[in-house]
Amino acid sequence: MKILKLTSESKTDLLNTLLKRSPNNYGQFESAVSDIVSNVRERGDEAIFEYTKRFDKCEIDASNVRVTKEEIEEAYQKVDEKLVNVMKRAADNIRIFHEKQLHNSWIDMKDDGTMLGQKITPIGLSGVYVPGGKAAYPSSVLMNVLPAKVASVKRIIMTTPPDADGKVYAGTLVAADIAGVDEIYKIGGAQAIAAMAFGTECVPKVDKITGPGNIYVALAKKACFGYVSIDSIAGPSEILVIADETANPLYVASDLLSQAEHDEMASAILITTSEALAKEVSVQADRLAEELSRTEIIKKSLDNYGYILLADTMEDAIDAANEIASEHLEILTANPYEIMTKINNAGAIFLGEYSSEPLGDYFAGPNHILPTNGTAKFFSPLNVDDFMKKTSIISYSKEALSKVHEDIELFAQSEGLTAHANSIKVRFEQ
Amino acid sequence: MKILKLTSESKTDLLNTLLKRSPNNYGQFESAVSDIVSNVRERGDEAIFEYTKRFDKCEIDASNVRVTKEEIEEAYQKVDEKLVNVMKRAADNIRIFHEKQLHNSWIDMKDDGTMLGQKITPIGLSGVYVPGGKAAYPSSVLMNVLPAKVASVKRIIMTTPPDADGKVYAGTLVAADIAGVDEIYKIGGAQAIAAMAFGTECVPKVDKITGPGNIYVALAKKACFGYVSIDSIAGPSEILVIADETANPLYVASDLLSQAEHDEMASAILITTSEALAKEVSVQADRLAEELSRTEIIKKSLDNYGYILLADTMEDAIDAANEIASEHLEILTANPYEIMTKINNAGAIFLGEYSSEPLGDYFAGPNHILPTNGTAKFFSPLNVDDFMKKTSIISYSKEALSKVHEDIELFAQSEGLTAHANSIKVRFEQ
User: Fold this and answer.
1) Is B328 annotated as catalytic?
2) Where does substrate bind (chains A, B) (predicted)?
3) Cα distance from A292 to chain B (closest Cα, Å)?
4) pLDDT values of chain A reduced to their tens digit, one per residue, 430 residues
């Protein structure tokens, strides 16, 4: 891995390089996606089945688009029982962590009869997209579905592309069953997103679409935003490690590679104040890259988006981390908690030497669907609030309104909205 | 106003009619907006100043694009002191209501050294768009800025178009000053949204853009979503009143008209179980439409999107209200609180005969920036959470990780992610 000095130039270069990976920059696919979306919106099932034949080489129709109970039972036969049990334990942890995020509706009351509050209710129907083929990750199914389940969303559907034989990856089906998905449809790509956004004869219109996907899926989600709610638009995976001389270089190198293996656009960055650590991590990372199974992906990812940055001070390292706003941030220093208090922008923070990033991907409970590409500056990990919405509650008594009715009338008049003023005034004229 | 029977047909017709007003349906403006956005992204200030000359007939440059302290002082001279005080009282109420929405960061701890939680922090920089001309509403300035202020957002900027003389509406400046805006830029339209999304020489890049605007502004916000966070895409205003025979027809008619006056696309709907009330409201609404100042707008809005629906039962009325998911919902019945418990989808609920909708627009404290066009099924009123983001915290001890490391390794292996598995494994090999 390359070692650079952390300067304002190297930081700017790095930020510009990372931002190039944003799914927002793939405008050239927009018109293809827009065609698919309008076609599904207008022609419904017919369009979906055509695209499935074209893109997935699979003939489906209304009679077999839904995964059956028998197919789910078959899937359980194909998955190692030990793994099924691990999935169940992971699901328990995810459920417990997300239950702690639940908020009650609340109401504030005053003596004069004023009641103001927020009613907090789940959305009615959520839709999860799960990629097929090599990108079918059962862990992602758990992470997408369980927050909706904890939010008490009444109906949760899933779409995922079938293979040429019309089958769905067994691990996806088992994870969906463990998480409590109600219906699974064998549809993939932009056509699946459009189906869920607008509804078709077979697929119900949902309120929110979540889940990862390729560039077509990401752009279809953006195109449908507003008709439905979506989670953030996911870019390639990222890890940033802040470490000092106390960190174990083998752990740091291993953790960097755990994200580099995701894909060639993934980014792995170490920022350290220790030159000795920088050199040792570089050596270990290069060695591990050769030993692990996804060597080609790891090497390309490290070449393009892997950095070891040597910082003069820990303050500089922290400032850079806040600017990069990484999806995953590990803090491997003598005082990780103190540094955490200074981190404002990150998807998830992993503290200390026994909190390696895959712990969060699979098991600890916090969601692994995290803001990427600097969007941790304004987006959050997928969470229960994403599946709930608020309604304001406003209730005034005659006494309460009579004290302020002239203020409201004056304000409305000043904006030229006389019918607004009138609606208050009529209550005090009779 | 027309009176119809509430049936599944009339409901479907109404829903389809209302949805036609969605800003999502104005694809024909998309390429114009996309040109403006890319031009500002590439050419920065130069592009902004050109568009301001073209669209606002106003020559601005780097020396005068920012509103000065003197201009704000002048604005105070132009606004009635009584109105300034009303704005301040409204601001206090808005601040108090939004302070009740603040959530603490939290952490959950276990004996074995596990610590899991959420760090909740404000975004760094928020940008508010304020329309110019007739659509400059000081109340909207307060509603957009104060939640960000309560969230402790460090820097809040505003953009608003200048008139041909390079001036900004005085009421906007006073409201911005009361709410605590840090900088105001004289830029409007899609070019202002692009400037805030990407930053230019003069305008800083923000993390989140909120605020209403015309179709160009709405589409520019959607185009920039992902580069920045945005609030929901606002459509025309809506009111739905559920009333029974106990409701005062003058109040109902006045409240319907208070939204109808917003613009010709605004929608005003009464659903009632009382035929007598339906008839009386229809008469009163038509009479008031003639008397109030914005007669032409009100008549067109009522003709196109005004409905009085006669329901067989209160249950039917409630079901329809949940399907329509109105921006504003008034409940004027003998038992408004009981009905409220059955309402899942609405931006804001106004209860009882002294909670007319303009109370919420101007004064009570809850936000008046609300989801429109059925999006209350999944979007929320603007609130403090919109200006905060979450970061997951994950900290395991050696003891805690050693109990589960084999589970994680197995799960990672099953997904073919060997570098993930390795990053856990190396911690238990030495």
Assistant:
1) yes
2) 237, 259, 262, 328, 361, 415, 420
3) 6
4) 999 999 999 999 888 888 888 766 667 788 899 999 999 999 999 999 999 999 999 999 999 999 999 999 999 999 999 999 999 999 999 999 999 999 999 999 999 999 999 999 999 999 999 998 777 899 999 999 999 999 999 999 999 999 999 999 999 999 999 999 999 999 999 999 999 999 999 999 999 999 988 889 999 998 999 899 999 777 889 999 999 999 999 999 999 999 999 989 999 999 999 999 999 999 999 999 999 989 999 999 999 999 999 999 999 999 999 999 999 999 999 999 999 999 999 999 999 999 999 999 999 999 999 999 999 999 999 999 999 999 999 999 999 999 999 999 999 999 999 999 999 999 999 6
What three-state secondary structure class fits B269? strand
A242 and A354 co-located in one domain: yes
Q: Which of A251, A376, A389 sits opposite B378 (nearest CB)?
A: A389
Q: How far apart are the first and last CA of chain A?
A: 80
Shared-domain flag, residues B240 and B92:
no
Helix (H) or strand (E) holding A330: strand A328-332
A261 touches chain B (CB under 8 A): yes
Q: Point out the domain boundary residue: A162, A195, A230.
A: A230
> What is the number of residues in chain A?
430
Number of domains, chain B = 3
Kindly state whether residues B218 and B324 are assigned to the same domain: no
Angle, vertex CA B273, rays to CA B269 and CA B21, nearest 5: 15
For residue B31, the chain A residue with the least C-alpha distance is A31
User: Is residue B76 domain-shared with residue B130, that is, in the same domain?
Assistant: yes
Q: Which of B320, B346, B364 is the last residue of a domain?
A: B364
Structure tokens at B390: 């979450």
In a domain, A395, yes or no: no
A57 and A98 inside one domain: yes
One domain, residues B102 and B215: yes
Same domain assignment for residues B287 and B314: yes
Q: Is B25 annotated as a binding residue?
A: no
- Window 81-110 of A: residues touching B by CB (8 A cutoff) are 82-83, 86-87, 89-90, 97, 100-101, 103, 106, 108
Does residue B220 share a domain with residue B207?
A: yes
| Chain A residue nearest residue B207, CA to CA | A378
**Residue B376 lies inside a defined structural domain of this protein:** no
Within 110-129 of B, beta carbons closer than 8 Å to A belong to 114-116, 118-119, 121, 123-124
**Residue B129 annotated in ligand binding:** yes
- Test B407 with A293 for CB contact under 8 angstroms: no
Concatenate the DSSP letters of all residues of B29-89 into one string: GHHHHHHHHHHHHHHTHHHHHHHHHHHH-----TTTSBPPHHHHHHHHHHS-HHHHHHHHH
What's B336's domain CATH number? Answer: 3.40.50.1980
Quote the ipTM score. Answer: 0.94
Locus of tokens 């992602």? A140
Domain range enclosing A200:
25-230
Contact A340 B393 (CB under 8 A): yes
Do the domain assignments include residue A378? Answer: no
